[in-house]
Amino acid sequence: MTAASGAPAGLDAGLDDAGLVEPGHGGGLGEVFRRRYLLRLIVRRELRARYQGSLLGLGWSYVRPAAHFAVFYFVAGVFLRMSDRVEHFPIFMFSALVLVSFFNETLINTTHSVLGNAPLVRKVYLPRELFPVASLLVSCVHLLPGLAIVLTVASVWGWTPSAAAIGSALLGFALVATLGIALGLICSALHVFYRDTDKVVDIATLFVTWSVPMIYPWTVVRDTAPGWALDAYLANPMAVGVLLFERAFWWPTTDGASAFPADLTRDGFVLLAMAVLLLGVGQFVFARLQRRFAEEL
Amino acid sequence: MAAARAVVVDGVTKRFTLRHARSIKNMTVRALRREKLRDRFTALDEVSVTIGVGEAVALIGVNGSGKSTLLKIISGVMPPDAGTVRVRGRVAGLIEVGAGLHPDLTGRENVFLNGAILGMDRAETLRKFDSIVEFADIGRFLDQPVRFYSSGMFMRLAFSIAVHTDPDVFLIDEVLAVGDPLFRRKCIDRLREYRASGRTMVIVAHDAKLLRQLCTRGVFLEDGRVLWDGDIDTAADLLLKKRQERRRGLTAPARPPAEAGR
Lengths: 297, 262
Description:
Chain B: This is ABC transporter ATP-binding protein. Chain B: Residues 29-248 form the ABC transporter domain. The structure holds 2 protein chains of 2 kinds. Chain A is mainly alpha-helical. Helices cover 72% and strands 1% of the residues of chain A. Chain A has one domain. Mean pLDDT of chain A is 87; it is low at 1-15. By secondary structure, chain B is α/β, with parallel strands linked by helices. Chain B has 8 helices and 9 strands. Chain B has helices spanning 24-32, 67-75, 107-117, 122-136, 151-164, 181-196, 208-214, 232-248; strands at 5-19, 38-52, 56-60, 82-88, 91-95, 169-173, 200-204, 217-222, 225-231. In chain B, the strands form 2 sheets. Chain B has a 6-stranded mixed β-sheet, sandwiched between helices. In chain B, strands 2-1-4 form a 3-stranded antiparallel β-sheet. In chain B, helix 4 (122-136) crosses helix 5 (151-164). Chain B is globular. Chain B starts with a strand and ends in a 14-residue tail after the last helix. The chains are: A mainly alpha, B alpha/beta. The A-B interface holds A 1-5, 7-8, 12, 15-17, 19-25, 35, 37-38, 41-42, 45, 48-49, 52, 119-126, 291, 294-295 and B 1, 3-5, 8, 10, 16, 48-50, 52, 72, 74-79, 84-89, 91, 93, 95-96, 99-100, 102, 104-105, 109, 112-113, 116-118, 121-122, 145, 217, 226, 228-230, 262. Strand 1 of chain A pairs antiparallel with strand 4 of chain B.
């Protein structure tokens, strides 16, 4: 009954299977890169959809960091007198804040990205890595206004571009972005199966906010905690990323008296390498779990 | 039948797990009552179908027979648990209406986005843009967000985009059920043209009359197995017969626990 599963014999049997490929066999992140036109449209859609019907539109990406800044500045800088201990405290804090917000936003949005695109995931085959990657790019767009403000304020305080500053910034960004997408891939896939994931991520972002030297200098940890605790503190890639950003934007505006941990650059590169490894793991986990996305959603 | 094969489904089995309890609390309760935590259910059981280039094949069966699942496996949305699937060329599908249409974007933006989702690049979409809009016949609503569209317009736009992607293998699931008679006529003509141009079509629909018009071959599925694979008329008759049986024997045989396609 089944027609010709034995395949027509002879000449065209070889010719026959030449163009046949397995459907839905995604090439992972590489496939996303190959379909970057679609990626661009999805990023644009995310940005459009997010501010649909709002009066301020993309202006909200200024309001949020501004509000964060105001809260932290008055509580930590003024009431807790951090401004007296740290020179140019606003730029110290804000350079850290933009990076932390970028990471938290990336993590939260990537976690929701696959579930948020459930209708598409269920019905059309696309490399599913598209959705977390699009979320990362949306966060990058939101990072730009913050960075612009940091650069403006830093320039007023005498910041000039230097190789060391730009290198630090790039390393810090690369480290945090790689970490963000690596964890984002894992969390977005897990969230399809366990809807607890976004709650865990939400709590994790709280720890990220306070476990980096943002409203206090890292020397506080050095001076109060035992040596092993400091080592643990500095093994946190987010702490290192933040320190790199501070070295890039805040430190050049100061008298240079405050020290950074020894080997900060080396630590940055080591952690970046580890983040790349984690990205490999994330891609593997995602590729495995995505096979069951369509039936689970 | 043409010599070249467009779709080869070989011994495909797909099982779904139905989880009865998701939270720890529910799991504990069910475990204490010694109820099952999950059920396995076979949606497709060693299905083998070979579709030649240029064929128009209907997947027929009552609800829960596995036809939508098979279509999803061919499209690559789901991988099979066992067996292999291979396809030739660009596979595009309308698996339910307008999966890729985003309500907050305008019709124009959706043409580009949905076109890209179905595999067109920018140049191709630009080239076909006028034709897509004309076929969809949405007129002045083109620059309105899609959420203000009537269901008919929504469906017309979705269909128009999909049909213009010119896939080598076109998968259609239940889309011809909606839409006004005029547009339906237009769709059917378009699909006929498409078939005449020598490309491959796989359709899932419940309308036996429509399938007779569009397809040359029918594959009848029941409980995840191929019951009949051959001419469309026999398959369509089989569907009508099964439906009657089902209507008569509402008390009779237990149906599979759930509808496979969601």
